[in-house]
Design brief:
The protein has 123 residues and is an all-beta fold. The protein is built from no helices and 11 strands.
């Protein structure tokens, strides 16, 4: 499967952004999906994950209550709604797919990765 992330940009602290990830070339509904992020000089960090059906979602501690992951299997899309953004949310955000997975916060579980989209939050 190929993944294409979009929707990043520059936003002020307290603002919102919605990231999108378009999947192609596979049976999208067979993949658990996730968003990770990586800031300069830091390790890749789990942000949010969702099961193949969308019935289960889970979040990294730093974004819980502010970000929401969702998916539309009919459109082969996964989304990340980001609210109450903080400067520390600044990073490149990547979507990832885990075929037949049930959702996991560990990056090595994901077989496919998008190219990343930059999110910059100004203070």
């Amino acid at each position: 499967v190929q993944l294409q992330a979009s929707g990043g940009g520059l936003v002020q602290a307290g603002g919102s952004l919605r990231l999108s990830c378009a999947a192609s070339g596979g049976t999208f509904s067979s993949y658990a999906m996730a968003w990770f992020r990586q800031a300069p000089g830091k390790e890749r960090e789990f942000v949010a994950g969702i099961s193949w059906s969308g019935g289960s979602t889970f979040y990294g501690g730093s974004v819980k209550g502010r970000f929401t992951i969702s998916r539309d299997n009919a459109k082969n899309m996964v989304y990340l709604q980001m609210n109450s953004l903080k400067p520390e949310d600044t990073a490149v955000y990547y979507c990832a797919a885990d075929q037949y997975g049930r959702g996991d916060s560990r990056s090595f579980k994901y077989d496919y990765w998008g190219q990343g989209t930059q999110v910059t939050v100004s203070s």
